[in-house]
Amino acid sequence: MSTIFASKFSRSLFRLLTILPAALLAPGIGYSNPLKINNEDNSMLPTRSEIPPKNKWNVEALYSDPMHWMKDLTDVKGKGESPRWPELKTFQGRLGDPKAMNEFLTHYLSLDRKLAKLATYAHLRLDEDLGNDEFKRNYGLITSINHDFRLETSWLEPEILALSDQSIQRLIGEPTLVPYRFHFERILRMRPHTLSSDKEELLALSGKAMDSSYKAFAALNNADMTFTPAVDSSGKEHPLTNGTYGSMIHSSDRALRKSTMLNLHLGYQNHINTLCELLQGQTQTHLFNARARNFTNCVTAALFGNQINPAVVYQLVDAVKKGRAYMEEYMALRKAVLKLDELHPYDLSSPLVEEANMKLTYEEAREAVVESVAPLGAAYQDALRKGLTQDRWVDPYENAKKRSGAYSSGCYDSMPYILMNFHGTLTDTMTLAHEAGHSMHSFLSRKNQPYIYAQYPIFVAEVASTFNEQLLMDHLMTKAKTKKEKAYLISDQIDRIRGTIYRQTLFAEFELKIHELAEQGQPLTPSLLNRMYADLMREYYGPLLVMDPEIEVEWARIPHFYYDFYVYQYATGVSAAMALHEQVLKSPEARDRYVKFLSSGGSKYPLDLLKEAGVDMTTSAPIEAALKRFAYLVKELKKNLE
Predict the structure, then answer these.
(1) Per-residue pLDDT at 18
(2) Average pLDDT rounded to a whole number, residues 174-190
(3) In whole angstroms, what is the distance from residue 467 CA to residue 46 CA?
(4) pLDDT tens digits for range 270-295
């Protein structure tokens, strides 16, 4: 099962549980990138071939070169064009027999596993250079073959669900099928939402066409979008890309921040009609799938597979809105510290504490991340150190046409790969900790679970990542030597909670609203989306934030809106992580529970996994506690700035 966070494509072993590759725009301590040819004259980014092998991820551990990948693809893709795997069809009508079911699952999972490895390599190579035609072709090939695989097994769930209760009990009671009991349970939950085999085949046929909106957005956003250079207070121009945006928006030069944010969003404004139609197409895809499967609405359809009640999302929105007073207090503090007449969105990422001496090279950042995870035990720490150094999990530096942002990706038969665009900021260091958390979660799950349960549910995916961010912050706080440095780190913690709870919940509500409009038959228009987004910004940030007209189009650049209700999990994830972090630091038993949670993969429903780890996300208590922590940090920041 190939994984990537956050991800758009999701399917199980029977199309509901596995995740195929897609893009992630991650949150983007000074600047240090040895691969920048000449920072002074803003020369172009290096090409992929100009980067030393030691500064690239070890994708050769999967396949030594594309020729070996192609050989494996030829072996796996089947002899015929249609059907590719006729042997799978021979099991149709026989799955009520335990022996046949066992044989089928063995063969099916073997194919699925090989295809996941092929897909992982293809998307990693493509993300190294989105302009490489060979990588584009190879990714297209494996995407097409995966589509055929889903199509040729579309009969599977309907056949299982059509079995009599007696046959189901016979399967569940068969000793050779004991490892699949929880998997069968998840399939049976889908009985009211699974169609006849011919209709399931039709839905499978539609899958490739329905991916078009996301693929078009990804191509436009990552490869074709261009922006007017940003200009600093001295009139100097700076090349503006999705990669450079993250560092320049944190600049202490307000003119540069303003130019960076406004010029970036003007770039999206220039394509607003296209971007509106792409988002509308993706929303209609979600609506089509929800209605085809007899769900009452899109959010229910998206959350059903993981047994998450939609009330969790609405509860999150309500809790965060009730905590708006904390945000307004922070907005007032930020405005006062920056000595501004007006507070604008481009002022929200500027440092409140200047020159806190937090500059780190990538090597220093890597060591800090490894040192920070000591509370999780020597075994965890040693595995992470080996992965980040000897095994080369990470592709750290930006190059021409490399995918923007950051993610953790991989499959059962690979290391957990990390893509980054490291520019030396504290944000970049925290992003490394974040993706390392994902990667260790994947590493431990694959090490301790069979293939069928190695992929953990998306709902818990952000817990491990934000937990590791908190550990890194603890570590950096112990290293802080001055009140100024402590204020710098506290300010960063505040902004991370703002970004992962307030901001992502805003995104979640926007996502709820656009799907509700689609369900009501109301078309999305650029002016409607702009107005709705601006209203939410005012509601979440309060009256002190002045909305620039250019920022109203920010919705158009958020890839998460294509992921089918993913963003709310950043907020629930960080809240759960903060609760577990507090417990782990207090007792070895809590640490052991947490490591067990990381090792459990998808062997249970996500809310059950978290309850066993020590946090109950069916209540609003973890969200409320996280918001109170935010309020506490705001007060601490005031003290350290006095």
Answers:
(1) 27
(2) 90
(3) 34
(4) 999 999 999 999 999 999 999 999 99
Take residue 611 and report the two structure tokens written for it.
Answer: 């309850």
H/E run at residue 477: helix 458-479
CA–CA separation, 31 vs 425, rounded Å? 6
Residues 365, 429: contact at Cβ < 8 Å? yes
Q: Which of 235, 325, 221, 233 is nearest to 539 (CA)?
A: 325
> Average pLDDT of 442-466?
95
> CA-to-CA distance for 297 and 231, rounded, in angstroms?
46
Q: Are 510 and 567 in contact (CB under 8 A)?
A: no
pLDDT tens digits, one per residue of 29-53: 222 333 333 333 335 789 999 999 9
Position 103 confidence tier, pLDDT thresholds 50, 70, 90: very high
Q: Phi first, then psi: give them for residue 206, nearest 5 degrees.
A: -80, -15
Instruction: Tell me if 490 sits within 8 A of 633, measured CB to CB.
Output: yes
Q: What is the pLDDT of residue 404?
A: 83
Q: Which amino acid is at 499?
A: G
Angle at 472 between CA 468 and CA 475, to 5 degrees: 140
Distance CA 560, CA 437 (A): 20
Q: CA-to-CA distance for 208 and 321, rounded, in angstroms?
A: 38
Q: How far apart are CA 410 and CA 391, in angstroms?
A: 14
Res. 105: pLDDT tops 50 = yes
Where does residue 83 rank: exposed (0-12), middle (13-18), buried (19+ CB within 10 A)? middle
Catalytic residue among 157, 200, 435, 550: 435
Written as six digits, the tokens of 144 are: 């097409």
The answer to whether 435 is a known catalytic residue is: yes
pLDDT at residue 68 above 50? yes
Give the pLDDT of residue 357.
60
Identify the residue whose tokens are 């046949």.
100
- Taking residue 91's Cβ as centre, other Cβ atoms within 10 Å add up to 20
Alpha carbon of residue 278 to chain centroid: 20
Pairing mode, strands 3-5 and 407-410: antiparallel
Q: Is 19 in contact with 10 (CB distance < 8 Å)?
A: yes
Rounded to whole angstroms, how far apart are CA atoms 446 and 455? 8
Record the pTM.
0.81
- What number of CA atoms fall less than 13 Å from residue 27's CA on the CB side? 28
Both tokens of 42, joined, read 């803003």
Question: Is residue 548 pLDDT above 90, yes or no?
Answer: yes
* Cα–Cα distance, 242 to 230 (Å, whole number): 12
DSSP 270: T
